[in-house]
Write a structure and sequence with these properties.
lipopolysaccharide transport protein A fold, 2 domains, 13-stranded antiparallel sheet, globular, LipoPS_assembly_LptC-rel
Length: about 200
């Protein structure tokens, strides 16, 4: 019995040595047959990205909301925004959506490729494929629209085209303002307005 016990102890002792060695051999084989990776490539990309972010001081998916003096809610969202390094009051944004929720219930959405916002002046200029959509049925396209977010005011410096409940509309300019007498928001088209009347949304 003593001999069997000694043999058992020796086997266990050898297994404690052989099994870890076998495991190391398997791991070594895996590393040898794996694809070679250059670790410096990822480091370079990370360094460039960090330097770019530090230089641009940009943020992703920024948003802010407020209320105008007349009680209308204003909200701005962007895919990315960055400050103007030469003017800290100026903010440059890309892929922008502005929403005006008016006191009488109408919602006005404005989307654009870019926006130039000035914080202390409470102004924003949206440009690049600007689309104005209202919950009461207007869809307007233009190149640029200048807006304020301390009170209700948005105006295009150039021509607009689109459609609404009356029909198809083209005009030299368009303004979104609050009527001074009633306080109700209005879309005002000026400078050579053309309307193709289409009652009840007719396409003919």
């Amino acid at each position: 019995m003593q001999l069997d016990g000694d043999l058992y102890s020796r086997v266990i002792a050898w297994m404690k040595i052989l099994l870890p060695l076998a495991a190391l051999g398997l791991l070594s084989t895996l590393f040898l047959i794996s694809r070679t990776v250059d670790p410096t490539q990822q480091v370079i990309v990370d360094e460039i990205d960090l330097e770019q972010r530090a230089h641009e001081q940009g943020v992703t998916n920024p948003s802010f909301a407020g209320v105008t003096g007349g009680g209308d809610e204003v909200m701005f969202q962007a895919e990315r925004a960055r400050p103007d390094l030469s003017n800290p009051e100026r903010l440059i944004a890309d892929t922008v959506m502005a929403r005006f929720r008016l006191t009488e219930g109408t919602i006005v959405d404005i989307t654009s490729e870019h926006a130039d916002m000035h914080q202390s002046n409470f102004t924003a200029s949206l440009d690049g494929n600007v689309t104005v959509t209202t919950s009461n049925g207007y869809l307007i396209h233009t190149d640029r629209i200048d807006a304020r977010y301390d009170y209700l005011h948005a105006e295009t410096p150039g021509p607009v085209e689109g459609s609404g409940p009356p029909g198809e509309i083209t005009a030299g300019k368009m303004r979104l303002v609050s009527n001074e007498e009633t306080g109700i928001a209005e879309l005002v088209f000026t400078d050579g307005v053309k309307l193709i009347y289409k009652p009840n949304g007719s396409k003919d």
